[in-house]
Amino acid sequence: MLTQLSIENLRNITTASVDLRSGISAFVGPNGAGKTTVLDAVHVLGTGKPFTSHQSNKVIQENAPHFQVVGRFRHGGPESVVGVKRLRQGGGEVRLAGKSVKALSTLAHELPVILINATTLDVLREGPEARRKLVDQLVFHVEHSFVGVWQRYYQVLKQRNALLRKGAVDDDAAWVAELAVLGEQFYYSRVRATDLLKAQLREVLEEMKVYFPSLRLALRSGWKDGVPFALALESSRSSDIDRGHTQVGPHRGDLTCFVAGGLANDVLSRGQMKVLMSAIRIAQGRVLKETAHRAPIYLLDDVGAELDAANAQAIFSVLAAEGAQVLATMVSLNDTAEGLKRYVTDVFHVEQGVLTSPNKMA
Fold first, then answer.
1. Where are the beta strands (DSSP E) in the chain?
2. Comparing C-alpha atoms, which of 113, 131, 129 is closest to residue 273?
3. On the chain, which terminus has fewer CB atoms closer than 10 Å, C or N?
4. pLDDT at position 338
5. Closest to 59 measured CA to CA, from 81, 76, 84
């Protein structure tokens, strides 16, 4: 749980420091006031990166040399401190418990975050790459060894593809052999994590009182079903040579969703897809808590504008019932459905990058 957050020179917040507690904290204010910046800051602490931009230097305030975010957190034991500083010219520093951190994966393990916003709610409607990322983010927390397999697989894939582009196909045997082993490990790690996700998703949908007929998540390996990856690579070799890249493997895998016997994209409305994706994100958080023993922080960016009142209330109800720490943005609490307001514990008002002390609701 995050207990304190300090922000300096991030987007439209020059400086701010807030104390946080468990439950649902609402950050309210007009558009452009700085609400999303608060969530961005927490995302930086958990991943090393903002979610509002792919480039960290783009979120540094104009004329400032850097931004810095510091957070205090605990997981049942003593409090610890994490800090991330990014320089405008590139580089920076990440520190955890007073020590320098080189791998951003360390942050994700120590302070996991689940982001629910317009972008993440559309993942099921996007291409396979976004859905692969969804699964791999989960596997990363479920199996700590996965990050090594993931990194090495893509290194070997890159090497083999470079040889294919050069036409040096006689030199790729060693890469293919290693790729075959890593690819099988990669895929079955995804299988195990997806099975956990399915079980939690059923429970979340029941608690939300949402029903999708014959809902099924299907994980595709990226090669022909029932065939060992080594054999799939061998069968694809001639075509790979012609095309200059490896056409089969986990990098071509996908997570597909079926409802009532058809693809969810074809059966469900856009609003229903967002409800389903919200449930999947909450299920992800539960798997993470169960396997990594780290309760995630949920970041809800204007979810009330993405979902209808009943489904937004269902999400808040489920998160409140499990005692999750939630940071949620909204334009005004007064414009929020009464059924949703009762789950909010603290209200921070944000205006022109300035945060007030919270009003305690419960």
1. 2-10, 13-19, 23-28, 66-73, 80-87, 92-96, 99-100, 113-116, 216-220, 254-259, 262-263, 297-301, 325-330, 344-351, 354-355, 359-360
2. 131
3. C
4. 60
5. 84
